[in-house]
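Quick question about two entries, pasted in order.
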Amino acid sequence: MFKSLDRVDWDLLHQQKLVLLGVLDSLERNAPTANALRGLVHLLDALQDDAVAAGRWAFPGEAAGRSGGRR
């Protein structure tokens, strides 16, 4: 992982992603804003998966080192 990610608050990032998912659910499916947010959610998913694989973070309610459990 990049050194710039050493200082990420992974729990806060997870909560922010959940907020984005809530906003996304309230938008019209094909609205340009929904598409933009969907891309950000996919980026956050990828970052979280890498953090799990690197042993830096675990999804809430899961054992360290296990991937998955998004949304």
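Here is the second entry:
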Amino acid sequence: MFRRTFWFTAGAAAGVWATTKVNRKLKQLTPESLAAQAANKAIEAGHRLKDFALDVREGMAQREAELDEALGLNTHPELPAPRRVAAIENSDNPKYSKNPTYVERSTYSYNRNEDH
């Protein structure tokens, strides 16, 4: 009698456990769940990619500093002030001359009926 009760209880527990596992797996395979999992994976990949880019940028800055030091480029000489250049009229080009007879023509004419 106790044997039968034990095996009945063990079978019922195994059935409940298996049913629970199957239901969880079915919920994981629904389209909404799969979409959420894909979105989470994409976000994780984006974070990893951002961390990688930051590491690369940090390494580049460090290597650039090492090269600057090795080549003696750390000293910045005093640069002269930038010069301002006055605009000069280009009289050789008819586009910029004061001749009112010059009309610029486009080399590309668009005709929307051309393609049909």
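Reply: The mean pLDDT is 81. The chain is about 60% helix and 0% strand. Hope that helps.
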